[in-house]
Structures are given as structure tokens and as C-alpha cells.
Structure prediction request, 408 residues.
Amino acid sequence: MPTDGVTSQWLRGVTDLLLLACLEREPSYGYALLERLMTGGLHPISEATIYGALRRLEGSGLCGSSLVASGSGPARRYYELTAAGRASLAELRTEWARFADAVSAVTKTPANDAPSTPASPATALHGPPAEGER
Amino acid sequence: MTEPSPRELTQAERAYVADVEFALRGLPRAVRGSLLEATRQNLAERPPCKSQTELARELHPPRVYAAELQEDLDRSEPGSVARARRRHRMAWTATALAVVVLVVGGTLGIRWWVTWDPAFYSQMSSWTCLESDGSACPAGAVTKVDNVLGTTTRVRCMPGRTPTIAVSIQSHSAVTLTGAEIDPFDQLYTVRSIQPWVQPPGQHPAPSRWPVTVTQDGTLTLLYITLDLDCQGAHTGQMIASILTIRVHLRAYGLDRTADFDLPRPIEIAWGDA
Prediction:
């Protein structure tokens, strides 16, 4: 039975892909990105993971950031994709598609497979019985 | 979900950041600073929380939040957090070790500085000038009595005689002599004066005033010690006093010190003429 913990683990594996994909559309800031992911059904997602990942992506040059003045309080840090980030996003998309297809292929239910009669375990392991055994 | 306005952190949120920082201890300053900046940014952009309980419910307890930050960091480069912690720990250990070495070394250095004592020695004998008027005798004076081969320099105590003893003194260290003294022996004699004579290399000794510098280049310093003797009541030939040590006052490394210079041969004071 799927749990929040399992989903959370999966999300951690694709955090970079998700954030880069969101930033491809438009520059944004941490909390807005978090909301977008959650409203898209990707939850629970750790806020620490999102904000930590944004700092990390910026550190590795996949996105840049700039402070944008706000009407009240401190300025927001807006992130936007760099050229390296776009290249990385393309690679991650390809990798994700391959991975998702592989997972789907392995995990699809037996009912969706072509009908066939599986061999009995004994036959499968030892082959047909010998003449004397019939 | 409504979009929050960025704002200053509440007291509870600042306390939360402090707790996260505590949980991130052991990480290098730069890494910790970046993660804390992410935390502050997170708190400033989300709806305000006025209690630690509320923060822990929405963001997880500070320790868990810190662990999630580190987990993300570690995912990009597996083992990076552990390596960073290890490097940080090693840097701290090296710093602590350096401090210990400096403190111990410094203490030993101070101890050496306080207890330093130059080794005085004399390659020449002691000798006496038998001038009856007590005047100091320069090197090469006819009346000088060397005692190069003897084991003892003997001064005869005669009424009205104020013999002068010349003692050569050298040091393995460059020091500044500020004075000298001899402990009187049973009040049978008094020290009238001790005057330094400096003999630069290749030259005759010349009288000087305290202080004088004893260098390591072989410069010889002579101490002319004029004694007043009181030999009343002694028997002829009786040894009434013996001088074994001269106390030298010096200044070295900015500190006034005292060193006892053992004479290479004792100076004996005996009653009667030679």
C-alpha cells in the first residue's frame, strides 16, 4: 500500500527534474515552486528539500538567482534556468522517460500481458518427465 | 494556498533557524551558511508561524529539517556531507593540536627564558697582584703572580696589605655584566671594590665601568677584585679564608639575573708573608 513516505522518497529522486522543468516555464521563487508542485499532486514534499535543492542547483550553475524587491519585507530570490540548466533538463527528461517506461514495463499487472499458460514449477525447473516416470 | 508576502522572521522562526544551525554543526562554515540561508529564505517566503510547535508540525522538527537539507546535498554528490564533516573535524583537530603545541611550546619557552643561566668559565688562572697600595695591576705587570699551573692561588695576609685578585671570566653566551660580589668569609676580609677590565681580542685589558658586555667571540673580561684583609689573631701559614665562587649579576633577554661563577682554582687567603 503506497504511503506518504514512499511518495516522498520518489519525489526526492526527481526533485531536480521537477524544479528545472518548472523554471523552464518562467523564473520563480522557492515558495511558488513548492505550491506548484503540491497543487500538481506531488505531495508531501519537504520544504527543506526544495529550498536546499534550489541553492544546490544554483551552486552547480544550472540556475541563476536574483533578488527582486518586494513591497514589504525582504526581497524574494527568483531563480531562472541557465543554458547549462536547459541542457541538464533535456538529459533528465530523456532519462526519466526511459526510467518510467522501464518501471511501467516491469510493474504492469499480469492481466495486461498476452494470455499464456505458465509451465508448472516442476516442468520449468526439470523439463518434461522421463519415460519411466509416466 | 495564498501567496505569502516576504517578511521578517518571527521570534519562533529565528529560534527555529538557531536550532537548525545547531543540528548542522560539524559542517564546514560555507556549507552550513548556504543551508541556513536556504532555511531563512524558506521561512521568510511562507506564512508566518508564531510557535515552535506550529513550525515543527509544518516543516518538521529542526533536527529533521536539517537532516533533509543534508540529504539533498548528499544526493547530488554521495558522501559529500560525510567527507565535508570529516574534513571539518580534521581541520578542527589540526587547529586544536597546533594550539596545544603553541601553548606547550610557549610554556617551555617561557620556562627556558626564566631559568636561563649562562655558563661562565675561565681558561686562565686566577692570579694576584701583590701591590701593597692595593692598586689594580694591569696585565703584564711585573708583580703579577700567575697561577697557570697551580691548583690554588694563595694570598698572604699581611698588615696593611690590600691585595688585588684578577679573575678572568668568559661566557658561552653574550651577556651584559652589571656587577659582581663575593660573600665575606667570617668577616676576615671585606671587598673594597670589584672593577671590570675588558680585553678586546689582541689587545691589553683596559679598565671599564659596569655594565660590561661579555661576547661569544673570545673577548676576555677581567674582574679586578680588591680586598681589605683583617688577619689579626691568625697564626702564620694558617689559611683563614677561601674564595671559591664569584657571584655575577647580569642582564640577558631583558631580565636581571644572577649567576654563580665557580673559580677554576680556589683563592686561599692565609696569614703571614710568603
Summary: Residues 174 and 215 of chain B are 4 Å apart (CA to CA). The radius of gyration of chain B is 39 Å. Confidence is low (pLDDT under 50) at residues 130-136, 138-149 of chain B. Chain B touches chain A through 28 residues (CB under 8 Å).
